[in-house]
Amino acid sequence: EETKSWEKLVNIAVSGAAGMISNHLLFKLASGEVFGPNQPIALKLLGSERSIQALEGVAMELEDSLFPLLREVRIGINPYEVFQDAEWALLIGAKPRGPGMERAGLLDINGQIFAEQGKALNAVASHNVKVIVVGNPCNTNALICMKNAPNIPAKNFHALTRLDENRAKCQLALKAGVFYDQVSNMTIWGNHSTTQVPDFLNARISGLPVKEVIKDHKWLEEEFTEMVQKRGGVLIQKWGRSSAASTAVSIVDAIKSLITPTPEGDWFSSGVYTNGNPYSIVEDIVFSMPCRSKGDGDYELVKDVIFDDYVLKRIRKTEAELLAEKRCVAHLTGEGIAYCD
Ligand code: LMR
């Protein structure tokens, strides 16, 4: 087993590689904490013309760290070169939102980037590349990317909602007075936006339904939900820029969830393609849903979840928001003329 895993490098492409999120993420990848202590990796770093100097600096720091598992570092600004043979594509590069902006306000600016990167992945990446889209609005960017990469299975595209899941777990644990490892089955439904639905109906604390442990249901419905929905925005207000370290941690969590078997009875959230979903969520969008993995890089949707009016009503709202975003990028998905509300 061991010799086998030493034989082959895993090719990891990262866009926005000179940015803040990547500066945390790349050193985690290189250290072995993501793919394990026996798995050598190659990092293919995509920057922009504007960031190429900074990217050279990042590559220097990676080299100077003498990570035993880091066998190759390449940098570039052409996705058709950088994405060559990528088995993982972590698409972080995009203009981030500033104070007072909604993530959807970035649709125009960032959509184009993801169309181009989808085309590049389609042309040169491994045909089973797993793509995790982080740049906002990440659900719709993931959809754009997917639509421009018809040779890659639609299932392979993820929009990062793991940060929202982690935020929700933390708040539930704080409220219940338990350590956060006691919180499980945490679904984020829908868009990585303020319409997202952190599902306290199916989530569990120490194996019990959240509502049995936290009796203050008004807190769950109002404060908790809003806190998770607005956490990213509040952080931008306070820090003056969007979350970086916690985002990198959640990317690590998202990758690990796909390459290790999901613990019995638990699940994780990821924004994935809705075709064939068992929840009657509208098809042909990227929507955060509960997933399980055998650890092979793939996932299946969890079937045994329950719904109530509260959750369903909110699912419809986040679904409507994603449909509106989709209409607004029709020119980028090859589906006609864009119409923005
Ligand atoms: C976050 O959730 O912190 C990121 O998506 C950044 C943002 O715009 O909120």
From TrEMBL:
Lineage, opening ranks: Eukaryota, Viridiplantae, Streptophyta, Embryophyta, Tracheophyta
Keywords from the named record: Chloroplast, Disulfide bond, NADP, Oxidoreductase, Plastid, Transit peptide
Family: Belongs to the LDH/MDH superfamily. MDH type 2 family.
Name of the molecule in the record: Malate dehydrogenase [NADP], chloroplastic
Top-level EC class: oxidoreductase
Compartments, as annotated in UniProt: Plastid, Chloroplast
Superkingdom, taxonomy of origin: Eukaryota
Whole-protein residues included: 90 to 430 of 441
Main localisation: plastid
Annotated GO biological process: malate metabolic process; oxaloacetate metabolic process; tricarboxylic acid cycle
Recorded GO CC terms: chloroplast
Keyword Cytoplasm found: no
